[in-house]
Amino acid sequence: MRTFWHEGQLAHRPASEFFNGALHPAADKVERAEHILAAIGRTEAPHLPDEATLQAILEDVHSADYLALLSTAHAEWRAAGREGDAMPYAFPVRRRPLRLERIDARLGQHSYDTCTPVAEGTWPALLAGTATVLGALEAVLGGEHAFALTRPPGHHAGTDTMGGYSYLNWAAIAAIRSGRRTAVLDIDYHHGNGTQDMLAGREGLSFASIHADPVSDYPYFWGHADENGDNIRNWPLPRGTLLEAYDAALAEGCAWIGEQSPELLVVSFGADTWEGDPISHFALRTEDYARLARRIAGLGLPTLVVMEGGYAVEALGHNVASFLSGF
Ligand code: SP5
Ligand code: ZN
Fold first, then answer.
1. Domain named Histone deacetylase: which ranges (predicted)?
2. The whole model's pTM is what?
3. Which numbered atom of ligand 1 lies nearest the CA of 164?
4. What is the mean pLDDT of residues 212-221?
5. Potential cystine with 326: which of 71, 160, 249, 294 (Cβ 3.0-4.6 Å)?
6. Residue nearest atom 5 in ligand 1 by C-alpha distance
7. What is the dihedral of CA 260, 262, 268, 271, to 10 degrees?
8. Tens of pLDDT along 141-183?
9. What was the pLDDT predicted at 221?
């Protein structure tokens, strides 16, 4: 397993998120990456192309106006006389193209929650994260397994929306750019709504997700048991799920992925399914991740693992190392 990481990703340092009627310290702390790095040891630094090159690659996957907003939102926020991170507060329920001026309005057009602030270093970190994914994808296209230590996470980001701590969708970028028949298996605690929306109906690409039932858990409006299209399958599971039931869903997910005859697998891996996660409610143990990974490796596909959630910072490195040991 080759592992990729660019230290520029540390520049993303959001201060807080807003939920339950109050501001809380941001769950996507920089320490998450530091603990993973300490546990997995040596990583490869990808080449960091210039901004224009990366932007052109990203425009094949995300919309140009969304990327433009991500790159300027924090400066615009400052120019409007604000302090801290840029954060929306009003959202269009009816979406239609409107040319809006005010930064709050434009943030709202491209967001769907109040947990995903654009901080000063967010855009440079996203460019570094893109390089990390592209480096790992190259290794996987060469037939190897690779881990892209992506942070911030990506699977809640849509073509032109940020949410759930996600801005750019790493799994979708890899799947679309691969040019191969590719399956995405999403095993973060939360449904991978952005990836699902971006891959739905796309020839040669498929998406399977195992996650907390959205009747009780974020992102609420996606990932329900009836959301199954030609290339989409969802396995919502109740709070409290233990290894046995989780592994049974994974066996079904892997069987379905096999039927899609992919040449390449992308795994959106979140360790927020761990028993001690502070914002989640499954009960997997550290050693369970190696077992789940062995089942996934049994598909026999070159596999790109991208990092999604996992917020129990002290345990996160061990959980990631356990998972990667199964490949
Ligand atoms: C990538 C990823 O895992 N994103 C998850 C975003 C979840 N945001 C939900 C915020 C609300 C959390 N409620 C926590 C209650 C703690 N007692
Ligand atoms: Zn998650």
1. 31-325
2. 0.98
3. 6
4. 98
5. 294
6. 164
7. 80
8. 999 999 999 999 999 999 999 999 999 999 999 999 999 999 9
9. 98
Instruction: Spell out the residues 6+ positions from residue 164 whose beta carbon is closer than 8 angstroms to its own.
Output: 113, 115, 116, 153, 155, 156, 157, 190, 193, 194, 218, 219
pLDDT value for 74: 98
**Of residues 156, 190, 191, 318, which has the active-site annotation?**
156
Q: Residues of the chain with pLDDT > 70: what percent?
A: 100
| Atom 15 of ligand 1, residue of closest alpha carbon | 279
Q: Taking CA 107 as the corner, what is the angle to CA 312 and CA 25, rounded to the nearest 5 degrees?
A: 25
Residue 72 Cα to ligand 1 midpoint, Å, equals 26
Number of the ligand 1 atom closest to the C-alpha atom of 280:
14
| Mean pLDDT for the chain overall | 98
Walk me through the domains of the chain, giving residue ranges and CATH numbers. Answer: 2-46+121-325 (3.40.800.20)
C-alpha 190/C-alpha 139 separation (Å) is 27
Cα separations in angstroms, 207 against 38, 188, 214: 31, 13, 17
- Cα separation, 281 vs 274, in Å, equals 8
Check if 214 has its Cβ closer than 6 Å to any atom of ligand 1.
no
What ipTM, to 2 d.p.? 0.95
What is the Å distance from ligand 2's center to 236 Cα? 13
Give the distance from CA 278 to its chain's centroid. 18
- Say if CB 9 and CB 167 are below 8 A apart: no
Which helix (H) or strand (E) element contains residue 24? strand 22-25
Q: Is the CB of 269 under 6 A from ligand 1?
A: no
Report the alpha-carbon distance of residue 215 to residue 195 in Å, rounded.
19
